[in-house]
Amino acid sequence: MARAPRDPLGLVRAEPTEPYPFTFDGRPLTALPGQSLAAALWAAGILSWRTTRGAGAPRGAFCGIGTCHDCLATVNGRPNQRACLVPVRPGDTVTTQKGTGRDTPR
Ligand code: FES
């Protein structure tokens, strides 16, 4: 009887292809196909990609399952995208979301 592969990719029978590019606040990064935005940002060492409305405190992923909305980011100009759920697509332009993402400068 063959032994099951021991590495995580083998366990799920994943065959990742080449990473593709996207940018975060103008910084070129890469993501694997199907990788969530939060996972890709974490892999690049980025832990915060939103600031709160009032105090401007930094936020990133908290629950990781789409419930808390702490991980909101602006993707291709669309604010309020949950980074823990949204897969990165080739060429995505991601920016830090400030406040509601729809705030206009006064
Ligand atoms: S980390 Fe909670 S909704 Fe994304």
Written overview of the protein:
It is globular and about 50 Å long. The model has no long low-confidence stretch (mean pLDDT 90). The chain has a domain at 30-96: 2Fe-2S iron-sulphur cluster binding domain, sarcosine oxidase, alpha subunit, N-terminal domain (Ubiquitin-like (UB roll)). The chain is mostly beta strands and 106 residues long. The chain has two helices and eight strands. A five-stranded mixed β-sheet has the order 2-1-7-5-6, covered by helices on one side. 10% of the residues lie in helices and 26% in strands. It starts with 7 loop residues before the first helix and ends in an 8-residue tail after the last strand. The longest helix has 7 residues, at 37-43. Bound molecules: FE2/S2 (inorganic) cluster (FES). FE2/S2 (inorganic) cluster binds at residues 61-64, 66-71, 82, 84. Residues 61-64, 66-71, 82, 84 line the site of FE2/S2 (inorganic) cluster.
